[in-house]
């Protein structure tokens, strides 16, 4: 289902429940009260000329093109700022209005070049609106105010041409109202006014602009225009699809010229993004055509040999032969697979089916193991289901946001913009994070409380907050009695009320100021609708599952479930982390989070698949690597994941991979894991496939193929090819058939189909007979498990200790311009913002260690060491350092340890004891690794037959 055009109604829709009927040009029109005359006319099919108005922004009323006549009213009001009224009579066209509009339009044309290329290509509204106003000649000469200003070409994705700018303020308003960065302003007055990015010395690149594209999309003239449009020309077709980056799941209109993508434009009807975007989804899609992308299958006998290109048939036959040989030699349990959170639901479903039906074991896992597996365990234990509780729209009714262990402006920027909108409307913010993230203090947004805890003490902080709630009588006892297990609550309440859990008693552990913690707890409990948003700073700990449970405990105790504006909401990192878990990618669960040991459940799948299933849970990723080092695990099929760069203790991962006899990597590029691979199966991008993703709010959204796969196959077809080489005889012809199977076997997806997704646009699971159009808010009348379950969460310090040799704590995270291990974004112009991983260090620590801004530092732990440049900042506390993991040259995970969550084996990335010291450059390990990478990526000149 594609969309070629999306009308602009001039002003946003009214949400009023009461309707008003008026007359516009003799036509009776009924619209909700509060609708503007402009929008009412547009909905009736009557176009009123406009330049400053667009339905993504609030009415502004500056361009004066949209003047109308209202019977009984004086003057000619602007239709974009005039609300409708019952029995109002409006005229949008008359001699008087045409004369006024022509006069206004003449002035605009004096400030706009007659030879505007964007106008000629149909990407500029000025000449079109001049024509709509009936303007044929211009009496005035061209103005000189903007014609001589230099074009700003600093941004790698778009240019700003002041000569085409009519100072309508749409870009400035978009930066304010939609993005919330306030990077743009109008400088000067009258004809001398102009759009400015930051200070007079700034350009778009050096300013606070985050390159979200809102200004480009809002610009009516082509003054702000994508370079891709300039280079390729205007698109000739478009199709709506879902972004392949983070867990927000933004909907975009992919605008094409044949098989060439010209631009990605955020879709206004996208229910996750509401017409907004970030720099990654909007602009960073060039990796799809990058020269380093591998398009032909390759094999080699040893990782010391160069790759040899082969046909797909030979690749499948060789892979199947190796897998069969290894199982015959080492046993049924000696092989396994890893699914991808970057691939579609249909593709991940097939990989876990391949392992269970083809490999005949349950050795399947997903990258969610190393990010959000504690979310699954913690929320299922307390609430009964492994997912977030609200939709993103819910934030509009939130009064108090608690953001813990997440950095939304970097990791989930489009949702962060919505959070900032709500905060500017008066909602309060609590941030619990070792770093001062942007939300703590940003333009027009400031947290009411920032609790800069010591890394690894989340459970202690949350228990101290619960202590305040219980001991000060702030719990919602009526909610707890009605909705939760009362006996479990009483046990939990007695536990948290103990004096040893007070903020004062735990302050030496958490390093959080007790009065600040008490104030934050009171605000959360009494401030109205309170919502928790959390990320990997909660889950990637030895007590990750305990922290998720503690969050659920706190929300249940205060009654913050079952309505908009509340809940416990994990901010998923990758585009399909939620979906890959939903599809049964964990070794102990089939789709829908149902345990493999259930005989009735296995019987359902066995009848559908025609094969027996092993009732024993398989190996998790860490167990696979351990077993490989021990000699028991010999082959791995990795779909779309780079475990060597993303998983902890890089040296151990490398040792595990090196010990295997057959590593099959299915991906876009020769990534770090492929250094140890024997078979490479080229993958397809999200632009080249059909399927579905599930975002962080459980929203199932269509992914639509906008171009043919450059490698020849969609990823599901690659997995099917391997399955059939193993003799499984799969006959899928389209991903819709796979979704039908998912729906047939998975209760939460029972009502989902491609046809319904085309009809509704998206669906939030559960979708079944009880909720045929999905479930935006979970646990409305009761929890999925029945009664909410409180669980005692004793704080247990991590085994990773600081000491004289490793005195500092390292915590890791992401940055706005890069994505995960950077395989995609590093192959785009996004590197201009983040060309390398940097080590953030507090000024005091930098001085103590003899380090200055830009110096090389060696970062060493008990697991390994690496070097990177430092940046000195008070965003981190003394004793804490921080870095990202986007660049393989750094391999930040060479220093992280194998300590992990007690319940799920999720690695403890966020707490690593380290030593920081001055350095002259790369470590010996980095140099050896670079040499290995260079050798491993050689491709033989011998062509495939």
UniProtKB/TrEMBL annotation:
In this chain the 2Fe-2S ferredoxin-type domain maps to 18-96
Residue intervals of the 4Fe-4S ferredoxin-type domain:
156-187, 200-229
The protein's predominant localisation is: membrane
- What residues does the 4Fe-4S Mo/W bis-MGD-type domain cover? 236-292
PROSITE patterns reported in the protein's UniProt record: 2FE2S_FER_2, 4FE4S_FER_1, 4FE4S_FER_2, 4FE4S_HC3, 4FE4S_MOW_BIS_MGD
The cross-references to InterPro entries, in alphabetical order and at most eight, read: 2Fe-2S_ferredoxin-like_sf, 2Fe-2S_ferredoxin-type, 4Fe4S_Fe-S-bd, 4Fe4S_Fe_S_CS, Asp_de-COase-like_dom_sf, Formate_Dh-H_N, Formate_DH_asu, MoPterin_dinucl-bd_dom
User: Keywords assigned by UniProt?
Assistant: 2Fe-2S, 4Fe-4S, Iron, Iron-sulfur, Membrane, Metal-binding, NAD, Oxidoreductase, Repeat, Translocase
Which region ranges are annotated with the description Disordered?
918-945
GO CC entries: membrane; oxidoreductase complex
Q: A Pfam family in this protein? A: Molydop_binding
Q: In its keyword annotation, does this UniProt entry include Oxidoreductase?
A: yes
Biological process according to GO: formate metabolic process; respiratory electron transport chain
Q: Any keyword Iron-sulfur?
A: yes
Domain 4Fe-4S His(Cys)3-ligated-type positions: 96-134
> Per its Swiss-Prot or TrEMBL entry, what cofactor is needed?
[4Fe-4S] cluster; [2Fe-2S] cluster
Q: Where is the composition biased (Basic and acidic residues)?
A: 932-945
Q: Which parts pass through the membrane?
A: none
Q: Where in the cell is it found?
A: Membrane
Family named by the database record: In the C-terminal section; belongs to the prokaryotic molybdopterin-containing oxidoreductase family.
Query: What name appears for this protein in its UniProt entry?
Result: Formate dehydrogenase subunit alpha
């Amino acid at each position: 289902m594609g969309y070629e055009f999306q009308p602009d109604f001039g002003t946003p829709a009214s949400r009023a429940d009461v309707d008003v009927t008026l007359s516009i040009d003799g036509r009776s029109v009924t619209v909700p009260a509060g609708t503007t005359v402009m929008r009412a006319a547009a909905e009736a099919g009557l176009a009123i000329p406009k330049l400053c108005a667009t339905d993504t922004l609030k009415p502004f009323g500056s361009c004066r093109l949209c003047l109308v006549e209202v019977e009984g009213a004086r003057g000619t009001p602007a239709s974009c700022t005039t609300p409708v009224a019952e029995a109002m009579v409006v005229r949008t066209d008359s001699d008087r209005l045409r004369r006024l509009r022509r006069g206004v339009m003449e002035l605009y044309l004096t400030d706009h070049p007659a030879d505007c290329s964007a106008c000629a290509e149909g990407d500029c509204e000025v000449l079109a609106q001049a024509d709509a106003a009936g303007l044929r000649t211009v009496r005035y000469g061209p103005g000189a105010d903007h014609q001589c200003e230099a074009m700003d070409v600093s941004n790698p994705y778009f240019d700003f041409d002041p000569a085409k700018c009519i100072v309508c303020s749409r870009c400035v308003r978009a930066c304010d109202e939609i993005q919330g960065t306030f990077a743009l302003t109008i400088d000067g007055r009258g004809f001398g006014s102009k759009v400015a990015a930051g200070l007079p010395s700034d350009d778009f690149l050096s300013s606070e602009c985050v390159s979200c594209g809102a200004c480009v999309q809002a610009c009516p003239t082509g003054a702000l225009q994508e370079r891709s449009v300039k280079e390729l020309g205007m698109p000739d077709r478009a199709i709506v699809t879902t972004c392949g980056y983070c867990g927000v799941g933004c909907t975009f209109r992919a605008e094409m010229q044949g098989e060439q993508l010209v631009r990605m434009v955020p879709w206004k009807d996208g229910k996750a993004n509401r017409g907004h975007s970030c720099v990654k989804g909007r602009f960073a899609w060039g990796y799809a055509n990058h020269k380093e992308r591998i398009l032909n299958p390759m094999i080699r006998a040893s990782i010391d040999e160069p790759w040899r290109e082969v046909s797909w048939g030979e690749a499948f036959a060789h892979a199947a032969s190796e897998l069969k040989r290894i199982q015959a030699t080492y046993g049924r349990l000696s092989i396994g697979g890893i699914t991808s959170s970057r691939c579609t639901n249909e593709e991940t479903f097939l990989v876990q089916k391949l392992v269970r039906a083809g490999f005949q074991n349950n050795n399947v896992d997903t990258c969610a193991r190393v990010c959000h597996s504690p979310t699954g365990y913690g929320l299922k234990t307390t609430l009964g289901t492994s997912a977030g509780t609200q939709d993103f729209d819910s934030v509009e009714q939130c009064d108090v946001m608690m953001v813990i262990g997440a950095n939304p402006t970097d990791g989930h920027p489009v949702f962060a913009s919505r959070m900032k909108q709500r905060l500017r409307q008066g909602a309060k913010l609590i941030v619990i994070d070792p770093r001062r993230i942007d939300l703590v203090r940003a333009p027009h947004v400031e947290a009411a409380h920032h609790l800069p805890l010591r890394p690894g003490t989340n459970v202690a902080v949350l228990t101290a907050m619960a202590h305040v709630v219980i001991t000060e009588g702030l719990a919602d006892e009526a909610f707890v009695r009605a909705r939760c297990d009362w006996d479990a609550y009483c046990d939990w309440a007695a536990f948290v009320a103990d004096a040893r859990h007070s903020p004062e008693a735990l302050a030496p552990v958490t390093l959080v100021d007790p009065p600040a913690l008490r104030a934050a707890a009171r605000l959360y409990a009494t401030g109205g609708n309170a919502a928790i948003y959390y990320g990997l700073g909660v889950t990637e700990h030895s007590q990750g599952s305990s922290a998720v449970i503690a969050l659920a405990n706190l929300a249940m105790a205060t009654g913050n479930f079952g309505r908009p504006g509340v809940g416990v909401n994990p901010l998923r990192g990758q585009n399909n982390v939620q979906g890959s878990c939903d599809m049964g990618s964990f070794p102990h669960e089939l789709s829908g989070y149902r345990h493999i040991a259930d005989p009735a459940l296995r019987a359902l799948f066995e009848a559908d698949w025609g094969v027996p299933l092993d009732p024993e849970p398989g190996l998790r990723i860490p167990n696979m690597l351990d077993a490989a080092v021990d000699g028991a695990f010999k082959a791995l099929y990795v779909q779309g994941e780079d475990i060597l760069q993303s998983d902890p203790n890089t040296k151990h991962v490398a040792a595990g991979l090196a010990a295997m006899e057959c590593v099959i990597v299915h991906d876009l590029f020769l990534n770090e894991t492929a250094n140890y691979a024997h078979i490479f199966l080229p993958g397809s991008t999200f632009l080249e496939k059909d399927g579905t993703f599930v975002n962080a709010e459980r929203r199932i959204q269509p992914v639509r193929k906008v171009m043919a796969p450059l490698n020849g196959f969609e990823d599901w077809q690659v997995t099917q090819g391997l399955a059939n080489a193993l003799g499984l005889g799969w006959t899928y012809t389209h991903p819709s058939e796979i979704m039908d199977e998912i729906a047939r076997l998975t209760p939460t997806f029972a009502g989902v189909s491609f046809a319904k997704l085309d009809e509704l646009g998206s669906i939030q699971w559960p979708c079944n007979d009880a909720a045929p159009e999905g479930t935006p808010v979970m646990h409305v009348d009761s929890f999925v498990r029945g009664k909410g379950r409180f669980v005692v969460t004793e704080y247990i310090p991590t085994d990773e200790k600081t000491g004289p040799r490793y005195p500092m704590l390292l915590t890791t995270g992401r940055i706005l311009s890069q994505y995960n291990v950077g395989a995609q974004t590093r192959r785009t112009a996004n590197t201009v913002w983040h060309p390398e991983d940097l080590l953030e260090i507090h000024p005091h620590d930098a001085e103590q260690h003899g380090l200055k801004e830009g110096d090389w530092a060696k970062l060493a732990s008990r697991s390994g060491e690496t070097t990177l440049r430092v940046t000195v900042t008070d965003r981190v506390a003394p004793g804490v350092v921080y870095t990202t993991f986007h660049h393989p040259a750094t391999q930040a995970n060479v220093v992280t340890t194998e300590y992990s969550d007690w319940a799920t084996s999720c690695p403890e990335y966020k707490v690593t004891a380290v030593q920081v010291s001055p350095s002259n450059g790369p470590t010996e390990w980095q140099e050896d690794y670079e040499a290995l990478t260079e050798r491993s990526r050689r491709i033989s000149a011998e062509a495939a037959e």
